[in-house]
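Dear all,

This email documents one entry for the complex benchmark we are building for the journal club exercise. For each entry we list the sequence lines for every component of the assembly. Then comes the predicted three-dimensional structure of the complex as a token string, followed by one or two observations. Please use this as the template for your own entries, and keep the labels exactly as they appear.
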Amino acid sequence: MSDEKSPPRKRRGAGRVTLLAVARAAGVSAITVSRYFNQPESVSPERRERIAEVVAELGYVPNLVAGGLASARGRIVAMVIPNISGPIFADTIQGFSDTLTRHGYQLLLASSYFSSEQEESAVRAFLGWSPAALVLTSHFHSPATEKMLAEADIPLVETWDYRPERAPIQIGFSHHEVGVIATRHLHGKGYRKIAFVQNSAAGDFSALERRDGYIETLKELGGEPQVFAPETDLAPFEAGKQAMLALMASEQRPEAIIFANDNLAAGALLAGQRAGFRIPEDCAVMGFGDYPFAAMLMPGLTTVKPPALQMGVLAATRVLQKLGVIEGEADHLNLLECQVIGRESA
Amino acid sequence: MSDEKSPPRKRRGAGRVTLLAVARAAGVSAITVSRYFNQPESVSPERRERIAEVVAELGYVPNLVAGGLASARGRIVAMVIPNISGPIFADTIQGFSDTLTRHGYQLLLASSYFSSEQEESAVRAFLGWSPAALVLTSHFHSPATEKMLAEADIPLVETWDYRPERAPIQIGFSHHEVGVIATRHLHGKGYRKIAFVQNSAAGDFSALERRDGYIETLKELGGEPQVFAPETDLAPFEAGKQAMLALMASEQRPEAIIFANDNLAAGALLAGQRAGFRIPEDCAVMGFGDYPFAAMLMPGLTTVKPPALQMGVLAATRVLQKLGVIEGEADHLNLLECQVIGRESA
DNA sequence: TTGTAAGCGTTATCAC
DNA sequence: GTGATAACGCTTACAA
């Protein structure tokens, strides 16, 4: 900490301990120190030890920016996700980030809020950092984004979607299958008159796939599908209420209802109970998402849990495999499974 | 897309469109293009227009790594947060990320899981990217981390905490005040016998500050504090149950209970109702956190909402002010307020 | 307003 | 196993 003769003030990165400083102090050349960090086995044990000492002593922190420039491959992976704080994607980010970090890579993150313009601008900004790989959510990108991706020539992963025909690595699950297993679960519990409530958010196409899985399966099982569509763009919680009360008042009163997501189901659960219906005796309720509140409701909400965390971990794993950081072939197609979380509501 | 005479293969960043390429195509020097991006007003309108054309045509993406190295200040801000997917921090990250992005900065993110070793290794890795600023959660860092921070000489912000005596910019709220306003809220509603349930997680010191606020305020109001401590390290949901049943069976049966957090409160709400108690008639319940499920419970959980999103936005704002990106003096101390969210449970 | 030259701290290349 | 040297693509400093 003593104030040594201050070196001639450099114009910019003044004061930073550099690789060269370490090299000099250790009596080796810069490239040897570089090798010490990147391919330790190619440095003799004695020098290795000496360098380690100096590094600790000087508190040297490798400048990854310089390294990235020199090698054109920074240890950064960028991810664009619709949102961070919603109930859906947080686990995916967490799994992705943790897996990456464990292998010495850093996460650059931005939200798109489902807007392809915002996605585009995030991708543009990210590419400036020459990330080692890029992870996007879903397959719908603006033409400009597609162009940048094509030119970037780095591993690309698309999560929360599954388009076998697309070139990027796909990591997703089948929404259709969600409809299937939810319907089978209810049928297995003895329910026969099963309805489905669509999402109130226009443009939620995945929810329609879940609905189709339901319709198909129920028909196979000899039932008669009954689909309710709430008013468009009603808040999901309200839409669930509306659907519940309408269905319970209808002539074709169902014994069980599958909701397009847990928000709808929660609204239904509460409104149903307020209206005096017992759940699941008068009507069973199922959701989708396994949002954090599902376990807190009374009765607990039976729902289908998407493999959110798993997708994040797998996305990172595939990226690291592509980069050769970890062993294994990075499969192009990665279809994960959802799981019925049985609680009291169905 | 035609295969032009392939230029002599460069060793590394082969093929990337560079600033120089843009400059040549536009008939100006590299520095002018650089200025076009960084201080557009110092470039004449005609050249500006010409450069814009070329940039679009060539699909030039500025290499931020090179820029970062040259200027020793990348437009990256790093944040270490205990976790991403828990109920607490997601809003803070979201607010932080969005505010940053809006001003052209990118977010580098990692989780510490409340471990100072993990925080240390994240900080070490981040510093290698010479971020423009660093944001940490809480004030407790390992000595090595403190040393790195001291030497890094970049703006540092600590969120979710508030230690006026510390040098970094502090952004937090008063846990003590949470205890105060919760107690006042219940007192205002007419409850007199008010109990407090501590967190089951050992080491949650903030929760103890909330408790002290409660004790102090209740005494001021003429009440007699009654603190219940669940078994240590019981899952919060279970701990809430245990506390509820124990308190309702005790001689000093309370009219209202403040729980150290919403998880405890939710456990209590459900267990209480299962045991036949009406809430809030037999006993009112309050939590802390305003976790996503709070609104979904029946009755809705009255709770104290911390300014999570706001803290993220403010952290980013202070950082940007420090960096001179946006106007305004960056205050050292930033105490935000919590808010009682009144629902049915109290 | 514009340009020239030098350098940011590292790694690739090639030689020893 | 080790080193000298030249990039990597940009921005600072200074000059015109």
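Observations: Chain B has twelve helices and twelve strands. Residues 1-11 of chain B have pLDDT under 50 and may be disordered.
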